Amino acid sequence: HVASCFDDLGRHDESLALKREIFAKDVASVGQGHEHVSVDVANLTHTLVELRRFAEAKEILREHLPHAQQSMDSDHHIVMRVRERLSEALCCDPAATRNDVLEAETIMLDVV
Questions:
Q1: What is the pLDDT of residues 82-94, one digit of tens each?
Q2: Burial of 63 (0-12, 13-18, 19+ CB in 10 A)
C-alpha cells in the first residue's frame, strides 16, 4: 500500500492525500457501514494523529464509529481498532481535557 510506505518514510502529507482519496472512493462505492471503510478510517486517522491534527481525527472517528458499531459487533477487531484510534486521538492531543483523558482510558480498558 503506497500510503503506508509514505507514512513509513515520514511523508505523512502525501500519505494523508492518498488515504483521503481511498476513503472517499470506498464510501461512494460501498457506504459508511462497510468494513473496508472502517479500515480506511483507522488508517486515515492514524496519519492525522501523526500530523497532530487531533480535532479532525476525533471528528472523523466520532462520526464513523456509530456506523461501524451498527454494521459489525462491538467486539469486532476493526471496531476495536477504530475505538483505539479514538482513544489515541483523545489522549495524545496536548489540548486534551481531563474528560478527554478519562474517555480515552475508558475506551482502552474496554478494548483491551
A1: 999 999 999 999 9
A2: exposed
Query: Strand, helix or coil at 10?
Result: coil
Distance (Å, whole) CA 78 – CA 108: 14
Residues 75 and 84: their CA atoms lie apart, in Å, by 12
Q: How far apart are CA 28 and CA 40, in angstroms?
A: 13
> DSSP H helical segments within 1-112, as ranges?
2-8, 12-30, 35-50, 54-71, 77-92, 98-111
End-to-end CA distance of the chain: 27
Which tens digits make up the pLDDT trace of 17-34? 999 999 999 999 999 889
Q: pLDDT tens-digit profile of 44-84?
A: 999 999 999 999 999 999 999 999 999 998 889 999 999 99
Phi then psi dihedrals of residue 47, to 5 deg: -65, -40
Comparing CA positions, the residue from 37, 28, 83, 26 lying closest to residue 58 is: 83
